Task: structure prediction
Amino acid sequence: MRRADRLFEIIQVLRRASGPLTAERIAAELETSKRTIYRDIDALVAQRVPIRGEAGVGYVLERGFDMPPLMLTSDEVEAVALGAQWVIAHADPALARAALDVLAKIAAIVPEDLRPVIDDPAVGTPPLNRERADDAVDVARLRRWCREGRKLAIGYIDETGAASERVVRPFLVGYVATVRVVAAWCELRRDFRVFRTDRLTAVAFLDERYPERSVVLRRRWLAMIRQRPSVQ
Result:
């Protein structure tokens, strides 16, 4: 991680924390050393970032830092809170952390009368109280491969139990109720296919990029979906 990225991540970690964080805890989350965190904290304080605390006790970022004012209604804040709760419960760990960061940012800038909407929301989504069948799949890397337009070599078992191996061009990771899917152009079938991640038996992340941009495949697929007659 570049130093500039790490400094930003330290601010994010402190922003979403509910209390003081020691350098050891910050270092563990960012996968670096305590000595590096001490140096980075000193650098941030020198840049007038309002971090309070000391080594061995813990650090706190004063509220309101670095956040421009936003005019949000209670409905808008609730929409963010509900969406973030769902992502925290159902998405991969990287997206879940991003959702926590979003909530922390919103909580830092909303007026005091809207803080309860974030801290104690009246809307919610049930937590996921079981292990996912696709926990072995690196969904964060799947999302990255979709963004970068790189191919996958996969093993797959369909709903009938038939196994196959194929090379696909992924362009979207979808979240459908309790399952996750990858939408891709299948080089074997020469058509669009949607693969459930819990039915993937193998995933090889290939360095090879496919010729189209992923956004082009995504738009073609969405256009095809919209043209299908709806079931009454």
Remarks:
- Residues 25 and 104 are 18 Å apart (CA to CA).
- Helices lie at 3-16, 23-30, 34-46, 74-90, 93-109, 115-119, 139-148, 214-227.
- The longest helix spans residues 74-90.
